[in-house]
Amino acid sequence: MSPRTRPTSYHCKFFQWRCLFGFLLVPGLDRSNQTASLESQSNKDCYVHSDMSAGSRVKLRCKSGSEASFNQETSFVSGKGLRQYHPTSFLAKGANQNFILEPLFNFRDENYTIYFNIQD
């Protein structure tokens, strides 16, 4: 699958595509190796956009032609997050919401068996 090919399904199972709250994390539209763009899953060719001025808000804007400024304003540099999850963390999908489970290190000396009641 090429970086610009849209997956046929929007399930977050694809190698290069990451699902993030209704947006696909795709390579930056400015074609730089250090940037990424957030494409809306529900609105084709619409991206999170910022006009690059101080204090500006981000909004969803749809692509109309090949504007160089649009490509630059929808490409963001990825930085280090505020925190990182432990490598053994995982996502538990619930009926109505998802949960990130990670180890609690204040219980290191104790052993626990955890049972999940997963229902259809």
CATH topology assignment of the domain at 18-77: Trefoil (Acidic Fibroblast Growth Factor, subunit A)
Major β-sheet profile: 4 strands, antiparallel
Structural class: mainly beta
Beta content: 25-35%
- The helix content, as a percent range, equals under 10%
Total of DSSP H or I helical runs spanning 4+ residues = 1
Report how far the terminal alpha carbons are from each other. 33 Å
Number of strands: 8
Spans where pLDDT lies below 50 across 5 or more residues? 1-18
* CATH architecture group name of the domain at 18-77: Trefoil
Tell me the name of the CATH class of the domain at 18-77. Answer: Mainly Beta
Radius of gyration: 19 Å
Please state the overall shape, judged from the principal axes of the Cα atoms. Answer: elongated
Q: Encode the helix/strand succession as letters.
A: EEEEEHEEE
Explain what the structure shows:
With 120 residues, the protein is mainly β. It has a domain at 18-77: Trefoil (Acidic Fibroblast Growth Factor, subunit A), CATH 2.80.10. The protein contains one helix and eight strands; from the N terminus they run βββββαβββ. The chain has one helix at residues 68-73; strands at 18-20, 23-27, 35-40, 46-49, 59-62, 76-77, 90-93, 98-101. A four-stranded antiparallel β-sheet has the order 1-2-3-6, with no helix packed on it. The two termini are 33 Å apart.
